[in-house]
Backbone:
RNA sequence: GCGUCCGUAGCUCAGCUGGAUAGAGCGUCGGACUUCGAAUCCGCAGGUCGCAGGUUCGAAUCCUGCCGGACGCGCCA
C-alpha cells in the first residue's frame, strides 16, 4: 500500500472544516496547505474567499474555523491571523507517524497506484543514423526516460518507444561520402565508435558539397541558395545523393548493403551511449519499415471527407478545422507521402497494437506546430484518440555563446560530455581518496558524472530554453546530483557507525521538535506530492527540486551539533537515528526515480 | 503578417489552477573543521517580478495592449 501521508493528514484535518463550511451554506473551495509565510504554523488556509458567501469578514470566519480545527487531536494550536487560519500540529505525533511511514511505505519512495490500469506509450530519443548524439539528445533521452519512470512509479503500464530515423536524404549524404572517401574504413580499423565514424562522413559530405558549390559559383553559376543548388542538376553530389535515395527505395542491393553496414555501425554506437546513460526502450521502430504507413488512412480520410484534393492534385487537410491557417498536405501531387502521413499511420498502428490510454511524444518545441497539426488530423480520423495524444515539448539547450551549430563545431557531443563529466568527478575523487584503486574510483566517478548530467538536465522545467555552461555542468557544488549523493553517503556513514546502538530504546520524538529536524520531516512529507505532480505535469524538475530539498534539509540537520545521533542520550539517539534511516531510504528512492545510482561512500 | 514559448537578484533558474514579508543554486564578501565525512554548513549584500492598463479584498501569477528574445507557420523531416 502506497500512501501520501501528508495528503492523508491534510484530508483528515480538512474534513471537519469542509463539513462546517457546507453546513453553513458555503461551498468548500480551498484545501489546507503549507503556509507561505514562515512562522505561520504547519498548515494554513485563506478564509477571504468565503467572506462573500457568509457576508462576514474573513477574520471572523477564521475565528470560527479555528474553533472547529482545534477539536482535531493532531492540532495543538489553531490561530486566526488576518483572515488566515493557521494550524500548529503535534510535532512528536507527526514525527512518529512520518518516520514509521518513511521506513515502511512505498509511498515514501514516490510510488503509488494513481495510474493503475493505464497504458502509456512514451516515445523519445528518435535519433537520425547519420551522426552521433549531442547535448540536445541527452535532454530528450533523459527527459523521456525519467517521465516514463515517473509514470511507471505512479502505477501506469509504460511502453518506451524509440523511432529511429534511419532513411532519407541525410542518411544518403554520409553514404555518398563514404563511397568517395571511405576506402574501406570500419569502426574497428579506425578505432572509433560507429556513430562517430558515420558522423565524420556526414561532415565530410558537407565539406565536399560546399567546395563544389563554391567552385560552381566561382565559375559563374547562378544558384546561390545551397538547398536549391543541391536539388539542381548542376550539383554532381546533389544528384548522386538523390539518385542514391531512389536506388535505396527501389531496393538496389549495393546501396542497401552499404546502408545496412553504416546504419549498423551507427546503431551500435547509439546502444553504447544509451547504456551509459541508463536509457532503455521496450520497442524500437525504424522509419525504413514505417515510412510507407498511413497511405490507407489517406484513402479512409478522403472517403470521410476529412481530406480533399487541392488544385494540383495533392491530398490536403484544411487546417481551419483545428483553428490554424492554411492546408496541410498528406500526399504530394505525385502521390507520394510526407512525414506527417507516416506519423498518422504509426500512431494508428500503435493504438491498434497497444490500446494505449495515452501516447506522449518527447520532441523539441520547434515541432509544436507539427504536433498540433498531427493531433488535429488524427483526432478527426479517429475520434477515440481525442485527449490521448500529448506532445511533451521541451526547449532547446543553448551554449553560453549561442546555439549549437554543427557547421561551426559548437556541438556538444554526448559521449564527449559524459567523458568530461566522468573526468571531472574522477579528478575530485582522486584528491579525496588517494588510496582508492582505479576501478572503484572509476565506478564512483561514473555515478557522480552521469548522475550529475541527469540531475542538471532534469532540473530545468521542460519548456525552458536554458543555457548550458560546460564549466558549471561539471561543478559538484550546489543544486547537483553530487550534493544529494553526498547527503546519502553521510547518512549511510552515520548509520554504519551507529550499528545497533539504538536498538531497544524507545525513541523520544520530542528530540525532533527543533527547527532543523522538523525541516527534514517537512521535506519528507512533501516528497510524494511532488512526485505525483511531476508525473501528472510531466515535469521531472519537481522531483529534482524535492530531492535537493530533502538533501539540503538533512545537511543542515547534520551540521548542527545539537542534532548528533552518536553519543546522544538513548531516547534522542533512537529518534534521530530513525530520522537518518528514513532520510537515507527516501533519498535512495528519490535518486532511483531520477536514474541516479546512490553511493555508500563518496 | 499569424501562432506558440519565454522575459523574476550580477549569472543560471524556481515560483505562475490568485493569498501573508517573492525563493534556490552559482558568484561576491565575511565566518565555522580537537564534535557523527568541510564534495558540508552559517551569515551579509543583491529585486519598481520587461513596460502600461484592467479584473480582484488581494496579482510575479488571470485579461488586454505594447517592448524585447527564441522557435515555428512546406507537396522538408
Residues:
Amino acid at each position: 500500500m502506497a500512501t501520501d501521508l501528508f495528503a492523508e493528514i491534510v484530508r483528515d484535518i480538512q474534513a471537519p472544516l469542509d463539513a462546517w463550511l457546507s453546513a453553513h451554506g458555503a461551498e468548500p473551495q480551498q484545501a489546507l496547505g503549507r503556509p507561505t509565510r514562515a512562522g505561520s504554523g504547519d498548515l494554513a488556509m485563506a478564509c477571504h474567499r468565503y467572506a462573500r458567501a457568509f457576508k462576514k469578514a474573513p477574520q471572523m470566519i477564521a475565528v470560527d474555523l479555528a474553533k472547529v480545527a482545534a477539536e482535531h487531536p493532531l492540532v495543538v494550536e489553531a490561530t486566526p491571523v488576518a483572515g488566515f487560519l493557521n494550524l500548529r500540529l503535534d510535532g512528536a505525533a507527526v514525527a512518529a507517524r512520518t518516520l514509521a511511514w518513511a521506513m515502511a511505505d512505498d509511498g515514501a519512495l514516490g510510488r503509488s497506484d494513481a495510474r493503475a490500469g493505464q497504458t502509456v506509450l512514451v516515445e523519445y530519443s528518435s535519433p537520425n543514423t547519420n551522426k552521433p548524439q549531442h547535448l540536445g539528445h541527452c535532454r530528450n533521452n533523459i527527459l523521456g526516460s525519467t517521465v516514463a519512470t515517473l509514470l511507471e512509479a505512479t502505477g501506469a503500464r509504460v511502453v518506451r518507444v524509440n523511432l529511429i530515423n534511419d532513411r532519407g536524404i541525410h542518411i544518403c549524404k554520409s553514404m555518398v561520402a563514404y563511397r568517395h572517401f571511405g576506402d574501406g574504413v570500419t569502426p574497428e580499423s579506425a578505432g572509433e565508435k560507429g556513430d562517430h565514424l558515420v558522423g565524420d562522413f556526414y561532415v565530410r559530405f558537407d565539406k565536399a558539397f560546399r567546395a563544389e558549390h563554391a567552385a560552381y559559383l566561382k565559375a559563374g553559376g547562378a544558384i546561390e541558395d545551397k538547398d536549391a543548388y543541391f536539388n539542381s542538376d548542376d550539383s554532381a553530389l546533389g544528384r548522386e545523393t538523390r539518385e542514391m535515395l531512389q536506388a535505396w527505395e527501389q531496393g538496389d542491393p549495393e546501396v542497401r548493403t552499404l546502408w545496412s553496414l553504416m546504419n549498423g555501425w551507427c546503431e551500435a554506437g547509439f546502444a553504447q551511449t544509451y547504456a551509459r546513460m541508463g536509457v532503455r526502450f521496450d520497442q524500437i521502430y525504424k522509419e525504413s519499415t514505417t515510412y510507407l504507413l498511413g497511405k490507407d488512412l489517406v484513402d479512409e480520410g478522403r472517403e470521410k471527407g476529412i481530406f480533399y484534393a487541392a488544385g494540383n492534385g495533392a491530398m490536403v487537410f484544411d487546417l481551419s478545422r483545428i483553428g490554424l491557417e492554411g492546408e496541410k498536405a498528406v500526399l504530394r501531387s505525385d502521390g507520394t507521402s510526407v512525414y506527417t502521413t507516416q506519423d498518422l499511420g504509426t500512431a494508428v498502428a500503435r493504438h491498434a497494437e497497444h490500446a494505449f490510454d495515452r501516447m506522449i511524444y518527447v520532441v523539441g518545441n520547434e515541432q509544436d506546430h507539427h504536433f498540433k497539426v498531427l493531433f488535429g488530423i488524427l483526432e478527426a480520423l479517429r475520434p477515440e484518440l481525442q485527449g490521448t495524444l500529448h506532445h511533451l515539448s521541451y526547449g532547446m539547450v543553448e551554449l553560453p555563446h549561442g546555439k549549437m551549430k554543427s557547421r561551426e563545431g559548437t556541438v556538444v557531443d554526448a559521449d564527449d560530455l559524459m567523458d568530461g563529466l566522468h573526468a571531472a568527478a574522477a579528478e575530485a575523487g582522486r584528491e579525496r581518496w588517494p588510496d582508492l584503486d582505479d576501478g572503484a574510483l572509476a565506478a564512483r566517478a561514473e555515478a557522480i558524472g552521469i548522475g550529475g548530467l541527469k540531475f542538471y538536465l532534469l532540473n530545468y522545467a521542460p519548456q525552458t530554453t536554458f543555457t548550458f555552461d560546460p564549466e558549471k555542468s561539471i561543478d559538484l557544488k550546489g543544486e547537483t546530483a553530487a550534493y544529494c549523493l553526498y547527503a546519502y553517503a553521510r547518512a549511510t556513514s552515520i548509520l554504519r557507525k551507529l550499528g545497533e546502538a539504538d536498538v531497544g530504546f524507545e525513541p523520544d520524538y520530542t528530540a525532533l521538535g527543533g527547527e532543523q529536524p522538523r525541516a527534514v520531516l517537512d521535506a519528507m512529507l512533501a516528497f510524494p506530492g511532488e512526485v505525483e505532480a511531476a508525473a501528472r505535469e510531466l515535469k521531472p524538475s519537481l522531483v529534482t527540486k524535492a530531492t535537493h530539498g530533502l538533501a539540503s534539509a538533512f545537511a543542515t540537520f547534520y551540521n548542527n551539533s545539537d542534532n548528533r545521533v552518536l553519543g546522544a542520550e538513548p531516547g534522542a539517539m533512537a529518534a534521530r537515528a530513525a530520522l537518518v534511516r528514513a532520510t537515507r531510504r527516501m533519498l535512495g528512492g528519490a535518486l532511483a526515480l531520477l536514474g541516479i545510482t546512490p553511493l555508500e561512500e563518496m
User: Anything to note?
Assistant: Chain A has a mean pLDDT of 94. The domain at 414-593 of chain A is CATH 1.10.730.10 (Isoleucyl-tRNA Synthetase; Domain 1). The longest strand of chain A covers residues 157-164. Residues 194-218 of chain A form the longest helix (25 residues).
